[in-house]
């Protein structure tokens, strides 16, 4: 199935080769979770990042249980830093 993945910050470097910008269409297996996508692209999977699916934040406790569907839009953002 296909999903659209948008990244924030420096996470664009984890998108597939040839991706222009910070958005890519990914082919993922049925039953994939947000954490599965993060692992698939080789990005940090420490649970401190913000994951949003179809405009709604996915709590860290559901990163490995929320099932994605064909056509979903997922955003993967690094933790905010401030000072």
Could you please describe the fold and organization of this structure?
By secondary structure, this protein is mainly beta. It has a single domain, classed as Beta-grasp domain (Ubiquitin-like (UB roll), Roll), CATH 3.10.20.30. The chain is 10% helix and 27% strand. It contains 1 helix and 5 strands; from the N terminus they run ββαβββ. The chain has one helix at 34-41; strands at 2-7, 23-27, 50-53, 56-57, 73-77. Strands 2-1-5-3-4 form a 5-stranded mixed sheet, with no helix packed on it. Strand 3 and strand 4 form a beta hairpin. It is globular, with a radius of gyration of 12 Å. The N and C termini lie far apart (41 Å). The relative contact order is 0.31.
Q: Mean of residue pLDDT?
A: 92
Looking at CATH, the homologous superfamily is Beta-grasp domain
* Gyration radius, in Å: 12 Å
First and last CA, distance: 41 Å
Uncertain parts: none
What sort of overall outline do the alpha carbons produce when their principal axes are compared? globular
Question: Order of SSEs, N→C?
Answer: EEHEEE
Could you say which structural class the secondary elements and strand pairing correspond to? mainly beta
What is the CATH T-level topology? Ubiquitin-like (UB roll)
The total of helices stands at 1
The CATH class designation is Alpha Beta
The main sheet comes to: 5 strands, mixed
Q: Tell me the strand order in the biggest sheet.
A: 2-1-5-3-4
Q: Level of helix content?
A: under 10%
- Tell me the domain tally: 1
